[in-house]
Amino acid sequence: MRIAVLAIVLAWSGVVAAAGAPGSAQQGAKLVPGHGLKGTGCASCHSTDNWRRVSFDHDQTGFPLRGRHSLASCSGCHASIDFSTAVPTGCSACHVDVHTGEFGSRCATCHDEESWRSKFDADAHRRTNFPLTGRHAAIPCEECHLDQRDRRFSRATVDCYTCHQADYLRAATVSVDHIAAGFPTTCRDCHNPFTFRSGRFPAHDACFQISAGPHAGIPCLGCHTSLTGTLPTGACATNTASCTRCHFCPVMQQRHTNVVGFQCKDRKCYECHQFTTGTAQTRQRRSR
After folding, report:
1. Cα–Cα distances in angstroms (integers) from residue 36 to residues 87, 88, 271, in the given order
2. pLDDT digit string, tens, across residues 72-113
3. Phi, psi (degrees; rounded to nearest 5) at 190
């Protein structure tokens, strides 16, 4: 009885060994068509420790598995486990193009193997018709490219006012009423991409220098009592500039005791102290 049982155990062990040993699979087991290529042994991918743990140097195929690709299962790309048939290496062979061909088939221009997070940053945006500078560089793509469902990004270049209309109108409550002042909607004429504060008005220097010198950085309403119709005409006569708001008459009268005909009036201040480009260093005309 013991001899019969021992014979059965030994026979069963032989069956298990034959089924589990990678080397014997080629001899007795039926291979998946195309799975065991000619001249390829099971040990090229499998080991005796764990049959399911596959190790294969994919670099030799010309398509190295990097990033998330290294986590894909063999059947994830080789659906039939038939390695005799070449698998297309283009991104669109496995991944649905959510941009519907808008950017062609060069997915690697914006994406890499690590994730689908776009690499198309502010630096890459320089190659478009709207370079991202200043605070524009920190804006999420979807804030300007609103088509989040279809991920389409082709759009005509817009002017400042298209996005900043609310800022243009809000200026009436925080600084200068742009509409009443007649300011155009070409925001970049006075502002830079970093901030709406410290706006510049280049045409002002032709009448009174504010881009540099002692009056640089002063808010518009710091000198002007009001601003209406400020489009530059070259006349240099808005009649709203108030020098005496900062340069008090009692102090100025003491400083100008030797100036013949001195009058502490806004227009008179301007006639002597224009600070225009090229004459900014001449702060006062001496009496003859």
Report:
1. 16, 20, 97
2. 888 788 877 777 777 888 887 788 887 777 777 778 778 888
3. -120, -25
